[in-house]
Design a protein that fits this description.
Shape: globular
Pfam family, one: AAA_3
Protein name: MoxR-like ATPase
Family: Belongs to the MoxR family.
Radius of gyration: 20 Å
CATH superfamily of the largest domain: P-loop containing nucleotide triphosphate hydrolases
Largest sheet: 5 strands, parallel
Domain ATPase AAA-3: 37-167
CATH topology of the largest domain: Rossmann fold
Domain ChlI/MoxR AAA lid: 230-301
C-alpha cells in the first residue's frame, strides 16, 4: 500500500471518534508527518484530548498526557539525575517527555520556566540533563491545548514558544446533525475504547523521510517567501512571521502534496496550509485589535494581493 493511503487510513480511523472534523484531523496528521508540533486552541469539551489520544492509538505509538498546572516543574517533564549509592553514579530518571505523542494539556496554566522546558525537545528532539543529552523516541510530536476564553491564572505563551508549533488549529463546535450523530455514537460507550491501530510508528518515520523528497520548484519557493515576508510589512502588524514560518510552510505544503498523491508541490498546496501555519506567528498592533482585525484577515488579504505562480510544469521535474 502506498504511504499516502496510510495517511487516509489514519484520518478515517480518527474520524470514527472525532465526528465531522476531517479538515482538523488532516492538519493534525500532516503536522505529525512533518515532524511538527501543534497548538490546539479551543473551548473545553470539543474533543481536543480525544483527538490526540485517537491519533496515538491509530499509529500504535506511546502516549503521555501532561496536565500542566502551576506546580509542575521542568524536571517532571524532562527528567532528572539521581544518585545511585550502589553504583556510586548519577542515573537519569526519564520524565514524561519520553514518549512518541505528548499531550501538553492546558499548557498556558504553567509558568514560563516550565513551558520553556519543552523548547529543546520540540526543536532538536532531545533533552539535556546535567550536561548529558538524551534523544527522544521517534516519531515525536507535542500537541498542546489551551482555552482561549479563560485568562485568570494563565501564562500566555511567548513568541519563541509559539514559533515552534508548525500549526495552530481549532476543533470548533459540531453542527446539529453532527452533534446528534455524536450522541448516537457515544450512547453505550466511547468508540475510543474500541479504536485499533491502522499504522505503525515505523510507517510515520518512513513517511517523514519520503516527504523530504517531494519536489518544490524555485517559483513555489519564491511564492512561499513572498507570502511570509509580506506579513512583516503590513501596517497593522508589529511582529511578522519568521523564516522558520517559511520553512514550516514549505514542509507542510510538501506533506499535503504527498497526502494528495503527488510528487510535486502546487500553489494550491501552499494556499491550503498558509493560514494554519502562519496566523499564530503574527502579532497585531493594539489599534488593529481594537478595530477587530485578525491575523486571518491579514493573511487572506496577502493571498489576494500576491501573484500566483503559473506556467510551471512541475510534474515533468
Amino acid at each position: 500500500m502506498e504511504k499516502q493511503n496510510v495517511i487516509s487510513l489514519i484520518v478515517d480511523n480518527i474520524e470514527k471518534v472525532i465526528i465531522g472534523k476531517r479538515k482538523v484531523i488532516e492538519r493534525v496528521v500532516i503536522s505529525l508527518i512533518c515532524e511538527g508540533h501543534v497548538l490546539i486552541e479551543d473551548v473545553p469539551g470539543v474533543g481536543k484530548t480525544t483527538l490526540i489520544s485517537a491519533l496515538s492509538k491509530s499509529i500504535s505509538a506511546s502516549y503521555n498526557r501532561i496536565q500542566f498546572t502551576p506546580d509542575v516543574m521542568p524536571s517532571d517533564i524532562t527528567g532528572f539525575s539521581m544518585y545511585n549509592p550502589k553504583s556510586q553514579e548519577f542515573e537519569y530518571k526519564s520524565g514524561s517527555i519520553m514518549s512518541n505523542i505528548i499531550l501538553a494539556d492546558e499548557i498556558n496554566r504553567t509558568p514560563p520556566k516550565t513551558q520553556s522546558s519543552l523548547l529543546e525537545a520540540m526543536e532538536e528532539g532531545q533533552v539535556t540533563i546535567d550536561g548529558n543529552t538524551y534523544k527522544l523516541p521517534r516519531p515525536f510530536s507535542v500537541f498542546a491545548t489551551q482555552n482561549p476564553i479563560e485568562y485568570l491564572g494563565t501564562y500566555p505563551l511567548p513568541e519563541a514558544q509559539l514559533d515552534r508549533f508548525i500549526m495552530k488549529v481549532s476543533v470548533g463546535y459540531p453542527d446539529q446533525k453532527e452533534e446528534e450523530f455524536i450522541l448516537r455514537t457515544y450512547n453505550l460507550e466511547s468508540p475510543l475504547a474500541q479504536l485499533k491501530g491502522v499504522a505503525t510508528k515505523e510507517d510515520i518515520v518512513e513517511m517523514q523521510q519520503e516527504i523530504k523528497l517531494i519536489y518544490i520548484s524555485d517559483e513555489i519557493r519564491r511564492y512561499i517567501v513572498q507570502l511570509v515576508s509580506k506579513t512583516r510589512k503590513e501596517q497593522d502588524v508589529v511582529l511578522g512571521a519568521s523564516p522558520r514560518g517559511s520553512l514550516f510552510l514549505m514542509s507542510a505544503s510538501k506533506a499535503w502534496a504527498y497526502y494528495k498523491g503527488r510528487h510535486f508541490v502546487t500553489p494550491d498546496d501552499v494556499q491550503e496550509l498558509y493560514l494554519p501555519v502562519i496566523a499564530h506567528r503574527i502579532t497585531l498592533r493594539q489599534e488593529a485589535k481594537l478595530k477587530e482585525i485578525t491575523p486571518e484577515y491579514i493573511l487572506r488579504k496577502i493571498l489576494r494581493e500576491t501573484e500566483v505562480p503559473t506556467g510551471v510544469n512541475n510534474e515533468e521535474k
